[in-house]
Amino acid sequence: MLSSLPRHRALALCALPVAALFAVVGLAPLPYAIAQPGTTADVLGKDKGREVITITGAPVRPTEGQLRMTTILATGPSTEVDLGDVADAWFRADRAVLPRESVYPSGKSDAEIEKRNLGQMKQSQDAATLAALDYLKLDPEEVKVNLHLADIGGPSAGLLFSLGIVDKLDAGNLTGGKVIAGTGTIDADGTVGAVGGVSLKTQAAARDGATVFLVPKAECSDAQAEQPKGLRLVPVTALSDAVASLRALEQGQESKVPSC
Predict the structure, then answer these.
(1) Residue 111: which H helix or E strand, with range?
(2) Is position 131 within any domain?
């Protein structure tokens, strides 16, 4: 019996099952996804040789600067994440550990998830177009907007699409020649909604040269958590106040621009 063994041997034998348990846990897949800063794309520019925003039915003016939508890159829905992956990401500012179901719906195949994300992007583009044309008081039956951005899904580029359309159609210059980045969903009435991974998106924006980041107001604290040096956070709740803030910045009216 174990009780008849010397104490140090008993402790060693008791430790074996515990060590084995930790080894199993360390190798076992966990229900998490690991996210990191993803790519950014200038909606005023081109993607794979094609203009991201193409407009017909109204005069389009030349633009300056950049309006960069931001993304996060997460481990795939079928990628196994173990304890070592989680521990490594936990202590890194450029990584985030997220419940897998908050990134990918459960019970869906990779193909189904991709189809869902592309569907959300299409809905976001349609809402962005309606919001921008409504803001400019233009008839969507007369002015046609085509949005092209390959290999990116989800709804979080809505705000930047709307701003890009406004910048191409309206008088003035939204960017002031600077690199502006941001994130946020948008409804057809211009309301800006929250998204995920904001603290990672700010890092992607700063990496790609942005000095201003438009963030849904409700997510200011998340954006501040890992705020890159030199990146100004501007909270927004609607397309109209995003435009107003960018115009004020372009005109040097810093006091009129809110900050997180």
Answers:
(1) helix 110-135
(2) yes
Residue 119 lies in a domain: yes
CATH code, domain with 226: 3.30.230.10
DSSP 197: -
**pLDDT band at 176; cut points 50, 70, 90:** very high
Rounded CA-CA distance 160/70 in Å is 9
Whole-model pTM: value is: 0.82
Q: Give the bridge partners for 30, in sequence order.
A: 81
240: which 2 tokens?
A: 């109209």
Nearest residue to 181 via CA among 222, 204, 152, 212? 212
Counting residues of the chain whose pLDDT is more than 90, the rounded percentage is: 60
In this structure, is residue 223 part of a structural domain?
yes
**Which residues on adjacent β-strands are paired with residue 99?**
32
Mean pLDDT confidence for 16-20: 45
pLDDT digits over 89-98, tens only? Answer: 878 889 888 7
Q: Residue 207 has which token pair?
A: 């990496």
Question: What is each CA distance from 181 to 9, 27, 101, 233, 234, in whole angstroms?
Answer: 62, 39, 27, 10, 10
Backbone angles phi, psi at 211, to 5 degrees: -115, -15
| Three-state SS at 105 | coil
**DSSP at 34:** E
Q: How deeply is 160 buried, as exposed, middle or buried, from its count of CB atoms within 10 A (0-12, 13-18, 19+)?
A: buried
Structure tokens at 137: 């008081």
Task: Determine the structural domain holding residue 141 and report its residue range.
Answer: 37-73+109-256
Q: Give the pairing type, strands 192-193 and 212-216.
A: unpaired
The more confidently predicted of residues 248 and 109 is 248
**51 located within any domain:** yes
What domain count does the chain have? 1
* Other Cβ atoms closer than 10 A to 87: 11
